[in-house]
Amino acid sequence: MSDDAIQKAITVLSEKIDQPSAPTDWFEMTQDRINNFADATLDQQWIHVDPERAKAGPFGAPIAHGQLTMSIMSFLPGGEGIGVPALDGVKMGVNYGWNRVRFMSPVAVGNRIRTSGKIKSVEKKGPMLEVINELTVEIEGQDKPACVGESVLRLVF
């Protein structure tokens, strides 16, 4: 892909720096999703997978793994391009990592969450662009977010 497509993408993304995206649709956290994540990651801690014991625990209900919340926050329904618009010439996006991830509020079974994004920076890295996108996961009816983290995305042209 030509440098022209990359330069155009830099211009488009730079204009969106610090502009909040529209949030995703609300998404319900279910016990089945938590159990499946626990099975996949081998993290079977009772605060996640034992509803009866978790009711008497520190959160009053089973909660999602922080890593589960972080794993799905970029992919919630209605969130195509959370903060990062479709760009001409992009073949794929690659998760390059995360900066400054914090889990501020637990996501209990039955909570509904959604994500919004805000591009913080864009930089050319060889034949790719690196986009830092601050993502925030809200919990419906709560002031304090569940998670805030900076996604490091590499766009391949």
How do the helices and strands line up, and which of them pair or pack?
Blueprint: H1 3-14, E1 27-28, H2 31-41, H3 46-49, H4 51-55, H5 66-72, E2 92-103, E3 112-125, E4 128-139, E5 147-156
Antiparallel strand pairs: 1-3, 2-5, 3-4, 4-5
Task: Describe what you observe in this structure.
The chain contains five helices and five strands. It has helices spanning 3-14, 31-41, 46-49, 51-55, 66-72, and strands spanning 27-28, 92-103, 112-125, 128-139, 147-156. The chain has a five-stranded antiparallel sheet with strand order 1-3-4-5-2. Strand 4 and strand 5 form a beta hairpin. The chain starts with a helix and ends with a strand.
Quick structural gist:
The protein has helices spanning 3-14, 31-41, 46-49, 51-55, 66-72, and strands spanning 27-28, 92-103, 112-125, 128-139, 147-156.
